[in-house]
């Protein structure tokens, strides 16, 4: 795109004049103006001959939905400005791009090539075995003449290859039906049906175009996001999905069915076009979209991680458990638990482990990095390093922190003011406190979340601006939504203002 932008903005030519070399580049249109078409047809007659020019202009149109055809197809501003005239003016890469645009523009207005093809069936008289052989010969080169032009320097076929094909074609054409053939040599070869090929960047963009998703200016960004977030891995030109990408796709498809439907983006593009045309009122369109999207967000916000794990386990069960010995899901260590799919506590990986954790800490398979790679639990400890849990002291006392401080990122923290002896805090204690806040559910009156939080002097229940303390004799793990609603009706309830910002840290000591 940078090279194309340079050609579009223009350069100073050898005669001292400045000129733009190609037309507008941010378009997926295929049509060419009548004036430009007449000029191209005229130059085709001059360069290649009268029989190469079409009787009427060749017109092309996009077959995909929502194609932006307000601009012409990308073409040279002057087709008579040959690539050879720009040698020394453009660098090698820019010249290659100009050659591509020039040759495609010329070729699209030339008559089609005429190919003579011959097919020969060779077999036994009873037709129990038949071999088929085909060969072809170019009768009229048509548009292929452009790619054999010295201006493009892209001869498709070498001369020896052409001669070989011509000899084979002539040999086959000299045969007549019923000629006897003699067996020379037989070579057996096995062929198996192959699955459809995986997407490459080009085939993915083509499919997005056919579905009406995105615009030419967004495709490169879309693919970059897939790579940067490790949703896919590019091996050569082929894109391979990572398990992380499979999980995100399954999660969105399950919980955001309308938004992830193929037609959603295309329909939204149509609605936006209607807004620009004055046929649809934009506030009503956004209101309708947001009211539907908010329901998905509210529902998904209350989904527990265990529900997501069960959904992913059901979706990818064949892939996840196929490599287990004898396809048995009984834990081989404790012989009581069942192997299930779990998300790492630190979000650094995904694994198949025993459902009796923490009593049984057996891990059968870890999915991290390469989707097909099996890693033992010892390897996981070396390759998947969890974030450190830190014990820190700030202006308001000690607190636990998950992970290091980073620019633009605030790690999760938990106050330890209710702990009398900070030196007795273990890693397990810190991890337990870092679980909070926990959403217990939605309030039946207004649908707003009811949250169990860790406050300065103990646990509290919060609903909007209402806060109720949790009695000391009540364990946080025993609190349900019903108990929380009762506590919100107690006499100890108080109202609060906006939440304060987290205090800044001063010094840190790594917990062991």
Automatic annotation (TrEMBL):
One of its GO terms (biological process) is DNA topological change. InterPro entries: Topo_IA (IPR000380), Topo_IA_AS (IPR023406), Topo_IA_cen (IPR013497), Topo_IA_cen_sub1 (IPR013824), Topo_IA_cen_sub3 (IPR013826), Topo_IA_core_domain (IPR023405), Topo_IA_DNA-bd_dom (IPR003602), Topo_IA_Znf (IPR013498). Residues 1-297 form the Topo IA-type catalytic domain. It holds the Pfam family Zn_ribbon_Top1. It comes from the Eukaryota. Keywords: DNA-binding, Isomerase, Metal-binding, Topoisomerase. One of its GO terms (cellular component) is chromosome. One of its GO terms (molecular function) is DNA topoisomerase type I (single strand cut, ATP-independent) activity. PANTHER family: DNA TOPOISOMERASE, DNA TOPOISOMERASE, TYPE IA, CORE. This is Topo IA-type catalytic domain-containing protein. It comes from Anisodus tanguticus.
